């Protein structure tokens, strides 16, 4: 079968395949981009697999970077783009259920495709747009089925991350997981405890932000995979709540919003600690934490100017979307209005600062000056004091006479 409508990303990358072939090796497009092209979805990261060993690949192209030589991956810089070219390989010895302790480079495409997780991820596409489909992936793709390549039990035992990957593909593509594949996922779910948290996070995050995330959560529950993910052992009720709380076709706007909804549903009191355990970045922890607090606070009242100032309009909008998706009363106009009316967006925009007040009004440094500045900031944010020197000085002088 030939791929119709070859996406421009492949066309641009074609010279890479041609150059590798001209040097006497085989080369193909592989992985998710071939799947997505067949599904006529936008593709990202074009991955190339080749029979050339890393040193051979490096000899073909003038500009390369070693990004994962031990796994056979060389980054090729051509035009203004970068392409990962990975040597055909098998992954044979898994010592601790984490990553293969050893990869063997091979010269056969079929061997390489065999080690891939699902039939719909095991296509190769050659330089004439012919689809190589060794495991009936096209049939599965047409029927919307996710099926492990080879013996499912072995595949999940080799690498339990594939369980999370499977759930997230079901959630992003709205695919059904074939019975034996799903049974094997259930059996080997306890091995998820051995998977590095960072890898699990990436897959769980993709699941939560996918269009059919509810399907992903349902599968997470029925497979009991959640029991083996960080701090989710007792989350069954919360996850069920997440399924019923939101309108059927609601899709999260971003990761921060999705994880905030998860944390609210499972009622974790300390989102930052939870996310620390998931080894997320400090910035991510902070934003999700703020969103969770904002959501809880908004349950008992409307937003004020100070909220727009302190958290920014975007976070307030994310919070309001969560409310809307649960059928709660919302006021998006108020958020726009509060933001528009703000005279300042951060402290540095105030025309006076401590130094200036000390110099021009002879105030003394110390905690009192600090509270005075806080008061000035709050009044400007509330629209009760103009952000100009005359008005602020006037306010301070009047205060002195109180
Ligand atoms: P996405 O569109 O999200 O990037 P993807 O299928 O391309 O999805 P990647 O993580 O980019 O996923 O991996 C590229 C390819 O490598 C996959 O399509 C699959 O063939 C193979 N692969 C990735 N991870 C695994 C794994 N844990 N086990 C087996 N094969 C894998
Ligand atoms: Mg990919």
TrEMBL record:
Pfam annotation, one family: PolyA_pol
Boundaries of every CCA-adding enzyme C-terminal domain copy: 252-396
Keywords on record: ATP-binding, Magnesium, Metal-binding, Nucleotide-binding, Nucleotidyltransferase, RNA repair, RNA-binding, Transferase, tRNA processing
Other remarks on this protein: A single active site specifically recognizes both ATP and CTP and is responsible for their addition.
GO MF, one annotated term: tRNA binding
UniProt-annotated binding residues for ATP: 32, 35, 116, 159, 162, 165, 168
Domain tRNA nucleotidyltransferase/poly(A) polymerase RNA and SrmB- binding: residue ranges: 174-232
Species this protein is from: Streptococcus ferus
Protein name: CCA-adding enzyme
Binding site for CTP: 32, 35, 116, 159, 162, 165, 168
Subunit structure: Homodimer.
Function (record text): Catalyzes the addition and repair of the essential 3'-terminal CCA sequence in tRNAs without using a nucleic acid template. Adds these three nucleotides in the order of C, C, and A to the tRNA nucleotide-73, using CTP and ATP as substrates and producing inorganic pyrophosphate. tRNA 3'-terminal CCA addition is required both for tRNA processing and repair. Also involved in tRNA surveillance by mediating tandem CCA addition to generate a CCACCA at the 3' terminus of unstable tRNAs. While stable tRNAs receive only 3'-terminal CCA, unstable tRNAs are marked with CCACCA and rapidly degraded.
Cofactor needs: Mg(2+)
Reactions catalysed, as given in the entry: a tRNA with a 3' CCA end + 2 CTP + ATP = a tRNA with a 3' CCACCA end + 3 diphosphate; a tRNA precursor + 2 CTP + ATP = a tRNA with a 3' CCA end + 3 diphosphate
Family classification: Belongs to the tRNA nucleotidyltransferase/poly(A) polymerase family. Bacterial CCA-adding enzyme type 3 subfamily.
GO biological process terms, semicolon-separated: RNA repair; tRNA 3'-terminal CCA addition
Ranges of residues in domain Poly A polymerase head: 27-147
Keyword Ligase: no
Binding locations of Mg(2+): 45, 47
Its EC number(s): 2.7.7.72
HAMAP family with a match to the protein in the record: CCA_bact_type3
């Amino acid at each position: 079968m030939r791929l119709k409508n070859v996406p421009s990303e492949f066309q641009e990358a074609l010279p890479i395949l041609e150059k590798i072939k001209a040097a006497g090796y085989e080369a193909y497009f592989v992985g998710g981009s071939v799947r997505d092209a067949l599904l006529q979805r936008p593709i990202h990261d074009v991955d190339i697999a080749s029979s050339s060993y890393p040193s051979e690949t490096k000899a073909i192209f003038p500009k390369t970077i070693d990004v994962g030589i031990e796994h056979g991956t060389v980054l090729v810089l051509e035009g203004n783009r970068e392409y990962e070219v990975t040597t055909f390989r098998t992954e044979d010895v898994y010592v601790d259920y984490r990553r293969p302790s050893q990869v063997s480079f091979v010269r056969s495409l079929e061997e390489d495709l065999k080690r891939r997780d699902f039939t719909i991820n095991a296509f190769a596409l050659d330089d004439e747009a012919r689809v190589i489909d060794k495991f009936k992936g096209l049939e599965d793709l047409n029927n919307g089925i996710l099926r492990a390549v080879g013996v499912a039990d072995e595949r999940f035992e080799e690498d339990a991350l594939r369980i999370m990957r499977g759930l997230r593909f079901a959630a992003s593509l709205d695919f059904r997981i074939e019975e034996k594949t799903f049974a094997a996922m259930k059996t080997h779910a306890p091995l998820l405890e051995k998977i590095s948290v960072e890898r699990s996070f990436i897959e769980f995050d993709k699941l939560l932000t996918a269009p059919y995330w509810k399907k992903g959560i349902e599968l997470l529950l029925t497979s009991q995979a959640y029991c083996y993910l960080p701090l989710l052992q007792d989350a069954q009720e919360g996850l069920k709540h997440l399924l019923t709380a939101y309108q059927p076709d609601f899709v999260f706007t971003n990761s921060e919003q999705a994880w905030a909804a998860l944390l609210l549903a499972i009622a974790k009191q300390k989102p930052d600690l939870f996310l620390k355990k998931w080894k997320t970045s400090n910035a991510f922890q902070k934003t999700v934490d703020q969103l969770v607090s904002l959501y809880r606070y908004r349950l008992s009242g409307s937003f004020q100017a100070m909220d727009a100032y302190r958290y920014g309009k975007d976070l307030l909008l994310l919070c309001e979307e969560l409310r809307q998706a649960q059928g709660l009363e919302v006021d998006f106009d108020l958020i726009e209005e509060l933001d528009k009316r703000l005279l300042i967006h951060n402290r540095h925009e105030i025309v006076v600062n401590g130094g200036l007040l000390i110099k021009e009004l002879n105030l003394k440094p110390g905690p009192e000056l600090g509270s005075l500045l806080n008061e000035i900031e709050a009044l400007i944010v509330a629209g009760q004091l103009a952000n100009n020197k005359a008005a602020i000085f006037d306010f301070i002088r009047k205060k002195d006479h109180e």
